[in-house]
């Protein structure tokens, strides 16, 4: 069913606001008000809560986290929504980037100890994105920040 993305991210940000405030991290979004997409809202929520909780966990006091969404057309005429989730956090070493979507993979114990996660979040995100016939990629610079780029179809394929 159609999800109004500006409303959806308003509610996702409400969920994240307490933990972000505690670290004085600013949450920003740039979502066109007219943008709707067909998606399973619960799965969409799981995707973005995982990405945003990582962004907040791996960003220091006073940093910022930003979500954008924009429509994009493929050469074949089909349409996507391209999302980005960017932070001004510690970044991910180049050598670890290819592995972060693996189950239980965490970059190093020192950085991860305080956050106490299991290393499952991004593997779940990738699985959910692929269930929606989308793709996810990551760009990161150590000490500067990280951006996840998620491409999802605007419409769901008719099944049968
Ligand atoms: P879980 O999500 O299961 O609680 P986790 O956050 O450690 O644990 P993932 O979400 O799968 O696991 O992330 C894997 C690893 O990738 C993290 O341990 C962290 O080292 C790194 N990582 C993920 N997102 C970011 C980010 N935004 N900035 C810096 N490092 C990140
Ligand atoms: Mg995580």
From TrEMBL:
Domain spans labelled Histidine kinase: 1-156
Compartments (UniProt record): Cell membrane
Any coiled-coil regions, as ranges: none
Domain of life: Bacteria
Protein name: histidine kinase
Taxonomic path: Bacteria, Bacillati, Bacillota, Bacilli, Bacillales
């Amino acid at each position: 069913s159609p999800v109004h993305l500006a409303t959806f991210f308003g509610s996702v940000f409400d969920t994240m606001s307490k933990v972000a405030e505690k670290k004085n991290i600013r949450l920003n979004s740039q979502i066109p008000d007219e943008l709707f997409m067909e998606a399973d809202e619960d799965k969409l929520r799981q995707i973005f809560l995982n990405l945003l909780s990582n962004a907040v966990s791996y960003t220091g006091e006073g940093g910022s986290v930003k979500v954008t969404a924009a429509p994009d057309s493929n050469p074949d005429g089909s349409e996507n929504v391209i999302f980005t989730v960017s932070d001004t956090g510690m970044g991910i070493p180049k050598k670890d980037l290819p592995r972060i979507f693996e189950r239980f993979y965490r970059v190093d114990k020192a950085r991860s100890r305080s956050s106490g996660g299991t290393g499952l979040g991004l593997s779940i995100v990738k699985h959910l994105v692929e269930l929606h016939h989308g793709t996810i990629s990551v760009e990161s610079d150590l000490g500067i920040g990280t951006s996840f780029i998620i491409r999802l179809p605007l419409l769901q394929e008719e099944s049968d």
